DNA sequence: TCCGGAAGGG
DNA sequence: CCCTTCCGGA
């Protein structure tokens, strides 16, 4: 068993694929890192270590060299590379593991959970794809008769909505500079993971699926949760950045057992950070999810709907799934009223950890807050260093970028921040952000509760591994729906945020499913945030908060007057959204093209 | 070592 | 946007 490299640190394919990033064709560092991490040959250079998602750069110089080679930047060094890594802090893609040299940690919890709440690394024979958020029209089938395989094209993986900025970024990988979309071999899609396990037998399955239910091919539901994981044994040494998912509480109809993975400790000697919604990391880079996870997710989603008046349309049809009533009974109208099944105590969605799941780690939460001095004037450095960057013509073209990058024009920006999110912002969203720290139960700021104009975020889950909270995004594309299955051409047809928000105190629009969308979103959000603050001990990182707020403001300001609509954030935003929705048949070609164009992601620097 | 501002490039 | 380059500071 072994330590067979490749499968050990398998990541979901979407993590490597850049399809959703038409705008940025350049390979991104985190992406590159991920790749190095997955390659056995680089284990002496960089490797997973410690907590999930935590990795150590064993040979900084080498990593830098590789990165430099990849980017055709011969002058690259660890100092520079690390600077780039530090930029990820704000983006929440990474954070530093303090005290450990050259050690960083991916925010996979968030990244994964946000997008694919029930992803499971559990068995190698599962689809790597992420479960998309079931949409109104499609029914969820439990279980599928056949294990479906991966859908490599993330367009198909993208779940409508449920994107946080980070997630978006995360998903927005990039392609190799030097080798890009010229490839026509669609098989290359798996190129990245080519070195790995079987993409399996069931690949063909995809083709059998009715076009209208692309999701199904994405899902692999455990026919028999609990057994499935016993097959492929995992080597103790296995590491995966993905946390396990302890689904608390007695399950619903379909969640009879806890995932065996829960008891697994990939790295016995190392700290283990379990997280809900994710199951056993292991072998494979395949994803799957089981009913428990589904339930978990649905609960969360429900909660979201409940708290933020999201469109519950996604809940319309989930046979056999019991969606627990969300907490906060104070709310008059349960958004989930239309759901089957009796309400279950949502022990984990909100409030505290049930203590049940073995992830009942309750870190004492030694919050550390860094207070930053108010941004004063900026120092002006006038040394005109003319560094001739090593020329390179590696990069490819980006035919998509339609950005009108006019971020900060006139007016002295008060605080300059690496924006965490892009496009749109929620009105005065009270951000609750706590700087990330390992072993903390932190509440992330609700990173962009706005997504592509149609997403909302839900409260974080305290039952998380304490490293991150999840932010579930749900599609709020109410009006379009109806039979929009493939209606949204590539998802480009998006409703402007406006349509998604109802006036306070006003009855919300009725979604196709006949569900009400309650307004007051913000109010509850604030409420939530407050709760979070309380939980966090009332403390929070002011500086961070400020920054975040500044960002929000900035975005706000930017948006104002631009008449920006959903797609206004730039081509990327729109496209991403498009990818998030199951592509209608007619969009397939484009998708696959994009897919092809972005499939290959090699470490090799083919053209410098 | 690590951090993050500033400026610039593509 | 996503770094790359530089750099002062902790």
From TrEMBL:
Residues 383-410 have a biased composition (Low complexity). Residues 532-562 have a biased composition (Basic and acidic residues). Residues 27-107 form the ETS domain. Keywords: DNA-binding, Nucleus, Transcription, Transcription regulation. GO terms for biological process: cell differentiation; positive regulation of hemopoiesis. One of its GO terms (molecular function) is sequence-specific DNA binding. Residues 176-186, 588-608 have a biased composition (Polar residues). Residues 421-449 have a biased composition (Acidic residues). Transmembrane segments: none annotated. Residues 566-576 have a biased composition (Gly residues). Its main location: nucleus. Residues 129-158, 174-199, 327-492, 532-608 are annotated as: Disordered. GO terms for cellular component: nucleus. It is found in: Nucleus. PANTHER family: ETS, ETS DOMAIN-CONTAINING PROTEIN. Belongs to the ETS family. This is Ets2 repressor factor.
């Amino acid at each position: 068993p072994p330590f067979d490299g490749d499968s050990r640190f398998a990541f979901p394919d979407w993590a490597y694929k850049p399809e959703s990033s038409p705008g940025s064709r350049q390979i991104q560092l985190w992406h590159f890192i991920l790749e190095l991490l997955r390659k056995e040959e680089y284990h002496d250079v960089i490797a997973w270590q410690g907590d999930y998602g935590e990795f150590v750069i064993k040979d900084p110089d080498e990593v830098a060299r590789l990165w430099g080679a990849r980017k055709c930047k011969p002058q690259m060094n660890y100092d520079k590379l690390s600077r780039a890594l530090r930029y990820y802090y704000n983006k929440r893609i990474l954070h530093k593991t303090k005290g450990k040299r050259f050690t960083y940690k991916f925010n996979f919890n968030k990244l994964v959970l946000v997008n694919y709440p029930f992803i499971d690394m559990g068995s190698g024979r599962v689809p790597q794809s992420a479960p998309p958020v079931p949409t109104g029209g499609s029914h969820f089938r439990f279980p599928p008769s056949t294990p479906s395989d991966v859908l490599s094209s993330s367009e198909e993986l993208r779940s409508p909505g449920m994107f946080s900025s980070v997630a978006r970024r995360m998903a927005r990988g990039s392609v190799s500079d030097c080798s890009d979309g010229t490839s026509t071999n669609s098989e290359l899609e798996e190129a990245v993971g080519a070195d790995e396990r079987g993409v399996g037998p069931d690949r063909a399955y995809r083709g059998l699926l009715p076009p209208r239910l692309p999701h199904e091919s994405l899902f692999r539901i455990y026919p028999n949760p609990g057994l499935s994981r016993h097959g492929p044994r995992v080597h103790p040494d296995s590491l995966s950045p993905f946390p396990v998912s302890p689904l608390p509480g007695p399950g619903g109809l379909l969640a009879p057992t806890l995932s065996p993975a829960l008891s697994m400790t990939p790295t016995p000697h190392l700290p283990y950070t379990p997280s809900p919604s994710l199951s056993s990391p292991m072998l494979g880079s395949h994803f799957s999810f089981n009913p428990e996870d589904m339930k978990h997710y649905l609960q969360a989603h429900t909660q979201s709907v409940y708290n933020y008046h999201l469109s519950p349309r996604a809940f319309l049809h989930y046979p056999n799934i019991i969606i627990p009533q969300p907490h906060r009974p104070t709310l008059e109208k349960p958004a989930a009223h239309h759901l089957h099944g009796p309400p279950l105590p949502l022990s984990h969605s909100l409030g505290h950890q049930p203590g049940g799941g073995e992830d009942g780690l309750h870190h004492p939460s030694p919050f550390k807050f860094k207070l930053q001095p108010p941004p004063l004037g900026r120092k002006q450095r006038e040394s005109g260093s003319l560094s001739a960057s090593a020329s390179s013509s590696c990069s490819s073209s980006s035919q998509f970028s339609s950005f009108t990058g006019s971020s900060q024009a006139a007016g002295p920006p008060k605080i300059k921040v690496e924006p965490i999110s892009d496009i749109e912002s929620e009105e005065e969203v009270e951000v609750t952000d706590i700087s990330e720290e390992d072993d903390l139960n932190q509440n992330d700021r609700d990173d962009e509760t706005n997504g592509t104009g149609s997403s909302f975020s839900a409260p974080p889950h305290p039952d998380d591994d304490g490293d991150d909270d999840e932010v579930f995004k749900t599609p709020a594309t109410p009006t379009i729906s109806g039979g929009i299955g493939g209606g949204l051409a590539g998802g480009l047809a998006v409703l402007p945020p406006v349509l998604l928000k109802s006036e306070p105190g006003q009855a919300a629009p009725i979604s196709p499913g006949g569900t009400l969308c309650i307004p007051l979103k913000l109010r509850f959000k604030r409420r939530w945030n407050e709760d979070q603050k309380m939980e966090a001990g009332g403390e929070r990182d002011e500086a961070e908060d400020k920054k975040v707020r500044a960002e929000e403001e900035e975005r706000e300001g930017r948006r104002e007057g631009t008449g920006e609509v959903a797609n206004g954030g730039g081509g990327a935003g729109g496209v991403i959204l498009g990818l998030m929705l199951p592509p209608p048949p007619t969009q397939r070609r484009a998708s696959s093209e994009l897919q092809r164009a972005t499939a290959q992601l090699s470490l090799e620097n083919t053209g410098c």
